[in-house]
Amino acid sequence: MKTTLILLAILALVALCAIAGCRLSGKHSTEATVALTAKPSGRIAIVYYSQSQVQNTALVAKWIQKHVGGDLVPVEMVESYPEPYGETLRAVKKHHDAGTHPPIKPVPSLDGYDIVFLGSPIWYGTYAQPLYTFFDSTALEGKIVAPFCTHGGGGAGKFFDDVRKACPNAKVLDGLTIRGSNQIERRLGMGVTAHSSEDAVVEWLNRVL
Fold first, then answer.
1. CATH code for the part of the protein at 2-30+38-208
2. pLDDT by residue (tens digit) across 123-132?
């Protein structure tokens, strides 16, 4: 009986957290209230890698496109990392420890673009392994690069420094760091919008463009 009561209490707590998460999501999923002050000139590409089922980074990429236009350019692995997210991280760690750059599907040429937004989740303190492969085959020389990242609570790590190292002949703008959801929050259904907002993206665009 005691075990049953404890189990019921835990389930009730999880339900309350899920409800709270939904409310947070509802609060931040509304339309942006901050206006873009000026749309940048030039052709825009929004390159991003987004792995998780929550699609934290993809959501931010779509918010950027909504306000500045441009073409979404997802970086996709030939063979995706496994789900659930715990399995993803184990597979990522193997690539990280071995210095492996996993195969990705062909990415359209960026030769005709002037501004490249570049987004990634933070894994092991920097950008995701598939972006190493992207940088192996794609030069961003002479372009304006605007980096953005999502994380589950650990911050941006070396992401922005590593992007600058990977793009030595590009103009790299100050980046955007967005708190996404972590593994526990995903299980509770809280999602990325519990911590981020479209307004934060627009405010960043107004600062750097």
1. 3.40.50.360
2. 999 999 999 9
